[in-house]
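Per reviewer request, we include the raw input and output of the structure prediction for the construct analysed in the revised manuscript.
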Amino acid sequence: IKSGDAAKDKEKGNSGGLSAQLEEIARMAQMLEKMNTGEGSLDQKIDGAIFKLPTRMLFSPGSAEITNSDSMLFLKRVSDIITVLPPNVEVTVRGFTDNTPLPRDSKFIDNLELSSARANAVIRVLIRNGISKERLNSAGYGDTKAIASNDTDEGREKNSRVEFTMRVAGPSNTSKKSVLDTLNTLNKQGE
């Protein structure tokens, strides 16, 4: 994206223009990539970015309590990044588990409840770190959205994760296009 594209959108009266949104997404992805500790993965999507983090970095097995100082420091870094993002970037924290049954003495009914509690625990830390609750959403999916086989330790670790989905809110003309298609279209329009 050319740096002048947002200015061109403003000149055309399109203050929330497509170019500006794409620039915000690219900036957001760069910040998340710099923050990445090698433990998670970053995927750029049409309208934002998803940072996936193994739950073992934040939670003990079967727990939704964040007590580890390294986890709190990591979430402080996430909060710092969210703080510098434009106010129209919304953050959804999504919790996922593998299909391992919870112990009988668990305070959670099932993995769905555990994943929701984990997502909400992360949200509470982000709010304590100064992020406006109006920018935040949470969801728990339990073991319903596996991204790997639950038959191996490696697969279960991939499935048990917390995702930070950061997306630019507002109308978008790119609802079904890939980022590459959109960038190509913008470059052709700018020529």
